Protein 1
Amino acid sequence: MTDRPDADIIAATAAHARLLGHLAGLDDEAAARPSLLPGWTVGHLLTHLARNADSHVKMLEGAAAGEAVAQYDGGVAAREEAIDAGAGRTAAELVDDVRAACDRLERLWATLPDHAWAGHGVNADGSRRPCVLLPFHRWREVEVHQADLGLAPTWDDWSDDYVSRELPRALATLPDRLADPAARRRLTAWLLDRADSPGELVIEGWDVHPEYYGR
């Protein structure tokens, strides 16, 4: 039996509340502005946050039924189509969608049978996604994308609890994201207190670890 990830559920629920608080008063002009993610408006990001919550509901409900279901029907292409289709809605429609999707997910977290947490879903890239990790992944989505909206919160507003959880995981990806052997040696020497600051390092993007950053 896998324990319920209660601490992550509480943290993700609090992140939902912060997000919805920041969206209070969002108008149509702001919803149509470019976000900090290339090619995406604020509307794209809000649609993504809503559909991501629904994808978690889908995987968790599947696990409760003893099935491993795909996060998005139709994979990455269908995910992108749904985001594009919803991005141009009014601010009120976008915010209502996010609020309703968060509510659906929170209600499921509260009622999900214990055995479901031992199950898994299938991420958009085809990788296995353990259900017990889903609340943390949702927490990450909301924390990170609040900053990506470009409305008010930034990465400097990330909660201390989130950073404490995320930093060790992000650091663990560095060996694969530092392609230059000399850069690896320089960073290792610094971490072992044998060299000065490594200075600027060329770190490859998340595509090196598609299974790490769920979408």
Protein 2
Amino acid sequence: MNVIVFNRKTGAARQFDLTSPACAVGLVGAALLVLSVAFFAGGLIGAEWASSKPAAQLAGWSAELHQQQAELTGIRQTMRNKLDQLALRVGQMNADVLRLDALGRRLTSVAKLDQRDFDAAHGGGKAVAANPVSAPATAAEVPGIDGELDRLGSELELRERELVSLEAALLTHNLNQSLLPQGKPVDEGSITSTFGQRLDPITGRSSFHPGVDFAAPEGTTVMSVATGVVTWAGPHPAYGNLVEINHGNGYATRYGHNEKLLVKVGDTVFKGQTLALSGSTGRSTGPHVHFEVLRDGSVVNPSTFINRASRGSFVASR
């Protein structure tokens, strides 16, 4: 089979014998090339079409959206748990404020402080009282948690200042109480001679007795009835071995007729501290403790100060 091809420009003709081996190979190669190009192009078009299917894209987006929703739910739960914990902490702080108020009131009452003095001490001029304190909040009720925390911070700062003032007032009250003579110089022992006029046991004549005598076997512990500084610790013509203590504010006390002294001049002694052991030195007819109280250099009746201890004055232990 022959194929004749004409050239339009030159008009020349060319003849191809399709049955020849060379022509057959060329035609087969051309056919294979066309098929290869068509297959490759079809593959590209098919892949692009598959990737551009709306259903496939929607399925991918839906899976991603579900994952993000799950993450958001987890974040919300974490934040809710933290807010619940924070709300609980706020409630605890509110309770602490109330407890501080109750403690301040109780200490003021127990110490028998004048409430007006305490108010002046912390500068408020008002009674110690809690501002309205809200109940513990929940996570759904704390959009203004920062404001609540600021309020509680201010509340706690105020209570701290008030308690510092109360502590200072208690220390001052305690110091004043410890410096004021009160109580007996011996734990046990009846009064054998009172303050005032009496018959002198040595002369038998009426004379003034400037103190109170307590019966006390020799060697009985003699204690200070108030805090102060020792101004005399030694022999005295009338009182034998004498201890005298200056308590400030014009008060002084004397403890006479001791067998042995356990302090010296210049010592600071505290209420209840042992000063001496009782005896019968000086003008004495037997072992006992002579107890005097002086105010601005003049003797006063010790009975007032002895009885004061039974009224329950508040003095913190040292």
Protein 3
Amino acid sequence: MRSEGFRVRAALAACLLAVAGGLALSACGDDTDDGAGAATAQDGGSAVADAQAAVETAMAPRTEEDSQLPTSGPKAVPDKSLISIVCAAAIEGCRAISDAQVEAAEAIGWDARIIDGRGSPAGWNDAIEAAISARPDVIALAAILPSAVSGALERAESQGITVICTQCGAPAGEAGVDASTGDEVNPIIGEYLGNYIVAESDGEANVLMWYYPEFGISKLRHDAAKKVLDACAGCTTESIEVKISEWGTTLPDRVQTLLAQNPDINWIYSPADETAIDAVNAIQAAGRSGEVRVAGGNGNLQALEAIKSDPTYAATSAVSYAFSSWAGIDNANRVLAGEETVETTSPVRLIDQSNSDAIPAGEYYSGDVDFRSAFESIWGGN
């Protein structure tokens, strides 16, 4: 059952670190709703039935209508340049977003390159300042919290540089961001994983879950998952904060210790696949394989492969990084053309072993729609 002392200490630590780092992801206070709003617990049968229905929908292919794929817009504005600031080149999800931003920029006919933000607010600021010195027409942020780099973004704005943001956890208009894409999926990712855990545990999940202070999107995902789990009368949660510096280093040992201290834990929720892999390694090291399962987010290549063969890695909420990034470049083009931006919904699909063949080996989730052809048709004026 839930350890109240564990929960309170984790919540206090999260607040203190967030404030100290200047990354106010949510108001500090009682962890009972953890920023997601209090949920009314359902009886076990009702919660499980609702979760099972939600999972069935989440595992189905997406459509163009689901994604709000645009069908019209301005032709490509020529002779422009873009610099993508990757949150951390060493992190697969960050790198995949930046790579897709560059891919889309080159498809529209712009010069494009990447600067590594090195996984910290200091690195992000340095990278943006370097980009400003290069005077591109567009700076594209990849999973970087705008409030952590507000001063640098204000300088970019003063230089007339258009700023777009993909998977950053902030709306357009905040801290000098002209267009934001991908953030709409973060609550969806968390909700899908929360429902999956409830359904697979038959409403009896004791969940260790976490988020990252450096990434606002992880808190959005965490809160959405926790809201679903809080509505399950037979489920309990324990939330901790995990810093980037722990990924692939100290986190497996930390999780192994928590599993020993809390033997009732039978599920681990991770907002991103990078640390879900850490959880799988910790479970194996703790001798808990077959007892504890993991659900993660993003749909990274290693996770998609692991899900096919390792029952410990149960599921991922796979998001189309490329769709989000191409939609961002489309909105940057609209800004440069003097037109209004448009809203899209990046495709997210729940993947477990049963439908893992829907994504070809070695590929990211495409979104089930041919968005590249659609955007290229708009940019070419066809």
Protein 4
Amino acid sequence: MTVSKKTIVLGSRGSMLALWQTNYVKALLEVAVPDYEYRIEVVHTKGDKILDVALSKFGDKGLFTKELERGLLDGSLDLCVHSMKDMPTMLPEGLGILGVPERACPNDVLVSLEKGMTLDALPAGSRVATGSLRRVAQLHRLRPDVEACEIRGNVDSRISRVESGEFDAAILAAAGIERLGFGEHIASLIPVEAMVPAVGQGAIAIEGRSGDAVASMLCSAVSDMQTMRAVAAERIVLRALEGGCQVPMGVYAFEAGTGVDAVFSMDAFVSSLDGAKFLHAHAEGAPFESGALAQNVSDDLRAQGADVILEELR
């Protein structure tokens, strides 16, 4: 007699990138814990339905997560897969980020028809598309002679608008482009030292019910501890400064080396939208100090006047 396996339902947004990420997690789970069947349920979020409004105009911090979280709370979903950078700092009671697989490339990239084109080499007056205030502020600081242009939509539609000549270039996340197989459209990688990534950029969040032992076991089986530590530290800074899509800020943490030689490094910035007021903080230490280092970075930015800048923006 064949015993049927219990089915774990994974919630996902319906975009190409969201489905790629959820199928990626599903494949990891099928290898790591083959005792279960895994099925994907597509849920359309508010952020998927409203594409003609800039992300910075929304006050709703759960733009891409709320509908999925309802499924977790009512039991129709067992786990939800998100882009980490879409996750609000405060989650609904009873839910948590239970797993984070190994992070992909965290960098931003320049998309241009000219292969090898860099941010530094863009001609003055170029129209550069981005939907992120974080990128806009850093672009103004690095290249005040180019024009930052608002854009929304999926990765493929953004690329096509550059190819059609509507924009001279676009700045997107490397992870999204590479995951969807559009790597040939990358003109150049922007160093994280030049453009600090968004909190959690390149990482995938697996959200579930906090008290669900099965969900916790599944997530633990596919998680990468270094990535979890880095992202958790980045989110401490985000929460401390109450940042999000509405403010120009970025935080990036990573570990280099192994064992007793491992070093945990973190960089963060807060900026005015025009890039004129640009505050930067850096900290490094042992990986076990990651939480304290994140708090040090938050305190440093505050001491430099981050609260004043953020309040003006809000």
